[in-house]
Amino acid sequence: xxxxxxxxxxxxxxxxxxxxxxxxVLVEIAAPLPLLTPYRGLAAAxxxxxxxxxRTGEASHFGSDGSAPAQRVERYGKWRVATAxxxxxxxxxxxxxxxxxxxxxxxxxxxxxxxxLDPEYACVGIAVASHPVYNTVAVFxxxxxxxxxxAIAPPPSLLSDPTCLTPNAAPPDEGTGPPCAGCGERIVxxxxxxxxxxxxxxxxxxxxxxxxxxxxFFTKNxxxxxxxILTHR
Length: 233
Hints:
two-stranded antiparallel sheet, 6 helices, Znf_LIM, 8 strands, alpha+beta, CATH 3.40.33.10, LIM domain, Cysteine Rich Protein, CAP_dom, 2 domains
């Protein structure tokens, strides 16, 4: 039983063992993980599922329309290499939500923790909503590489839904986007994240053949340098 001052006691599945294991895993991480970059499209996908769970009272990765996480993400942009979804129910604060996912009590494969600590995921979108059964629900959408369809806004019904607590971010103003790692020019509308940098889609090219990387690609060390490079599969 987890007892915190002023909060409802929580019956755990594994007791302190899962917490100790999570601490050991975090201590063993040699270097800080790369910062995640928030994306409007991923946040919209998370907000859509949050609002759906708030309306139905369900606890599922599948939407009431039968959609899977990857399908919802694809409504607001294009993911590449890998994508994943974490959902937390009942956290009273951001700290409690993050701690719950990292400890992953009662989850045999520690899938939530593995996703949170996977350095491959560089892009994220998060939404939180009230839930009729668990009080709150938080949805995290992750992607290794994401091309944000900034021109696509969430459905009007989602934006007006009072149960969704995460507002939709406005598109960046002209010329205020991050610089492209390839050409140095500002990214105004659609960008791709790879090697912890932002790129115009047309500037993200294979280091071996020079062609644009339109599909999945590998990250590997260069032949004459320890710096990673991008290549076709």
